[in-house]
């Protein structure tokens, strides 16, 4: 049964509410509505309808009955990230998908020229439930970014990790859950009950999709993911330094409440250094080693019970 919170999220005009109330009192309408709901609950019927919508979208045809102010978004799969729900312990899979209908990432040059802060527009699909290899229930979320963002993640591992951190933060914020910051990248392009991402609807026209959380805007600069310069131009291209983040978990302290109700916080140390991405535009032969001297050391501490920074002393 739908909750009151779900109804609050439905943006309906007073006229639409009036019409819906009137129709709900019509026995014939309720009978047809019940038949429709029963038909749509059949996975085979739902898949058939989604396949028809995909074909119409690929042909550029207008879908009959589709809202005029909405646009159909059919994501393509990229890779999958796995973490867990800190409260329930259940596995959580976040499918990183992409579409050219999502706004491109935006980079803002730092005033000290130390790097670029990225904002990652995205669209988060509805939560789904699936089972893992052992048959245990798990949560699944589709996180859709721009095609350009996908290309950038393919080019650089640090940006890929940054993208996963952004996805974890988005799920936590919009689903009101606490996820582990530790994640892995299984050899899956997609995890879900239907083996493919759900179709989404977004507003037509300039789509103001959410952007990454300010705390996750890492100073990562990468070269243009689409256009490559000829080899003759690469030697004369100015060196562009990038501030990259290399995360090194130091401790994975589980919450151990003592007699006073205190919780031991989790923490990690991030070593950050400057990299010249032109070193490995052609191949991976000159990737940075793990023993390079860091230029910055950052300590990140999770304080799940702190709601106001002013309370800290």
TrEMBL record:
InterPro entries: PIH1/Kintoun_subfamily, PIH1_N
PIH1 N-terminal domain span: 41-201
Region Disordered: start-end pairs: 41-67, 188-261
Family: Belongs to the PIH1 family.
Protein's name in the database: PIH1 N-terminal domain-containing protein
Species per Swiss-Prot/TrEMBL record: Marchantia polymorpha
């Amino acid at each position: 049964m739908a909750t009151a919170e779900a109804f609050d999220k439905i943006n309906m005009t007073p006229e639409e509410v009036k019409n819906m109330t009137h129709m709900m009192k019509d026995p014939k309408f309720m009978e047809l509505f019940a038949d429709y709901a029963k038909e749509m609950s059949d996975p085979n019927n739902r898949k058939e309808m989604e396949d028809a919508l995909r074909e119409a979208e690929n042909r550029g045809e207008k879908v009959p009955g589709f809202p005029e102010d909405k646009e159909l978004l059919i994501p393509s799969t990229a890779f999958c990230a796995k973490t867990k729900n800190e409260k329930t312990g259940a596995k959580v899979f976040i499918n990183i998908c992409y579409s050219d209908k999502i706004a491109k990432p935006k980079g803002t040059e730092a005033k000290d020229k130390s790097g670029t802060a990225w904002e990652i527009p995205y669209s988060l699909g509805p939560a789904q439930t699936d089972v893992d290899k052992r048959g245990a229930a798990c949560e699944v979320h589709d996180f859709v970014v721009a095609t350009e963002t996908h290309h950038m993640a393919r080019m650089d591992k640090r940006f890929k990790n940054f993208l996963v951190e952004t996805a974890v933060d988005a799920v936590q914020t919009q689903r009101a859950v606490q996820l582990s910051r530790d994640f892995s990248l299984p050899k899956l392009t997609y995890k879900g009950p239907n083996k493919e991402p759900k179709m989404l609807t977004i507003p037509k026209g300039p789509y103001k999709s959410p952007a990454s959380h300010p705390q996750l805007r890492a100073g990562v600069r990468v070269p243009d993911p689409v256009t490559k310069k000829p080899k003759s131009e690469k030697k004369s291209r100015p060196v562009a330094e990038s501030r990259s983040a290399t995360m090194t978990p130091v401790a994975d302290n589980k919450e151990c409440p003592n007699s006073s109700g205190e919780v031991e916080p989790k923490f990690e140390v991030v070593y950050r250094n400057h990299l010249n991405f032109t070193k490995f535009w052609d191949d991976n032969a000159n990737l940075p080693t793990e023993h390079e001297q860091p230029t910055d050391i950052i300590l990140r501490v999770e304080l799940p019970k702190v709601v106001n920074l002013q309370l800290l002393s």
